[in-house]
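Q: For a teaching handout, I want to show students what a protein-ligand complex looks like in token form. Below are the inputs, and the small molecule is BES. Please produce the holo structure.
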Amino acid sequence: MAEAPKLFFAPIAVPGSGVLVVFTDADLRFGARTRAVLGSALDMVTRAAKADRFTGKSGSALDVVAPAGMKVSRLVVVGAGKAAERKPQDLVKLGGAAMGRIPLAASDATILLELGDGVVKPDAAADVALGATLRAYSFDRYKTKRKEGEEPAAKRRVTLAVADVAGARRAWGARRGIADGVVLARDLVNEPPNVLFPVEFARRAAGLRKLGVGVEILDVKAMTKLGMGALLGVGQGSARDSRVVVMRWNGGKKGTPPLAFIGKGVCFDTGGISIKPAAGMEDMKGDMAGAACVVGLMHALASRRAKVNAIGAIGLVENMPDGNAQRPGDIVTSMSGQTIEIINTDAEGRLVLADVCHYVNTRFKPAFMIDLATLTGAIIVALGQEYAGMFANDDKLAERLTQAGLDTGERVWRMPLGPEYDKMIDSKFADMKNTGGRFGGSITAAQFIGRFVGKTPWAHLDIAGTGFASSNSDINKSWGSGWGVRLLDRLVAEEYEG
Ligand code: BES
Ligand code: MN
Ligand code: ZN
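A: Here is the structure, written as tokens, with BES included.
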């Protein structure tokens, strides 16, 4: 499993060893306790800052080795920018920035949680801990050698020095489940496809049972009985059996319609008979990032005992070329009864989602459905890797997702839907075809899914650009980003709990 250093909360005190990280506001404004801890070294820090033209701008840092008058081996000053410009979310980033400045060779480090305008409150301390935890994540399960000088993560301790230790521990207790959910999602995305195939993915999702999540696994026989011809067609070329996993968290009032989250879980996407080019194909182990996010989200909701009823449903398949694989030209019948002409076997995600969305909608009658999928290369062309594409049949849901995106930094950009685009997937031979041509590729993919959600408020998030291989940030150095867990947890917490 991914190793990360241990985090502790302790009272603010002068550290006797290790690395010390402190924060400063712009114009080198230290908090009173930070000044007290720095003591006589403060003057030297001021001179070093001047020499380095360090002013405490957000994102910058000043490194002082063996500061005179202190027992620590290294002092790092991290810039927190202007207090007036700080958004709540910035504390998560600051936690990441602070953790990023602690050398891997350090076995003992202290992060002093005070900003220029005073000590941080418990909730803010938990935000810093969240950012620090996410930054420290690294997927090294398959590395048999450590870099020279690097301490094993288990031996590394990071102390968060806070004014209110009990309060911070309590707040972190509630926030920690979110960190664990993101880490779980990242682990799943990073795992190689020979290890994480549908049955193994389902087994890992079943691990949520220990948090009180109900987990049901549908095997091929059960799916055949339900008539999930669209999903099963994708998996039929693989030696690995397909699965659907349904996770249920009932933390809300009995009888309230659940919120439903649905994930594309293509454990490996070769393209099938419409095979992909070789270059970069290894990235297609991440084609289950939507499903990974749903599992991570359910973990987060359950471990913080969210007061909400939620369903997580994931369609797990492997898309392989084979003598038994589906062909371009095949016509399959989805669980909804609608027929689909396969034009390109590489447009497989929408086929999986079609059946899972219909199943969830008819069985659970959810208050809304949000699906996540690494669905189209076209969304990367449109939006790059900063925003996920959002498609919705409901303005309120779209607005709420947009706001949650701004609050968490996992941003979504709304794209259009409409009958003109829907026409593009009409088929000569069946009710629809599975591709709509080169133009508006992400939109026609969304239109396709839209044909399987009935009148239920629905949003589709195309995370092909954000789910993996996205740019590194203060809180993520991992290939698999775990994108969407914080976004959807926030959406639930802000709009649907209590
Ligand atoms: N999984 C891919 C989309 C993808 C591409 C995700 C790159 C992440 C990075 C999806 O199954 C796919 O192959 N989509 C095709 C659709 C086309 C055949 C209509 C695509 O985007 O080219
Ligand atoms: Mn594909
Ligand atoms: Zn795919």
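A: Two things your students might notice: The pocket of zinc ion (ligand 3) is lined by residues 266, 269, 287, 348-349 (CB under 6 Å). The mean pLDDT is 97.
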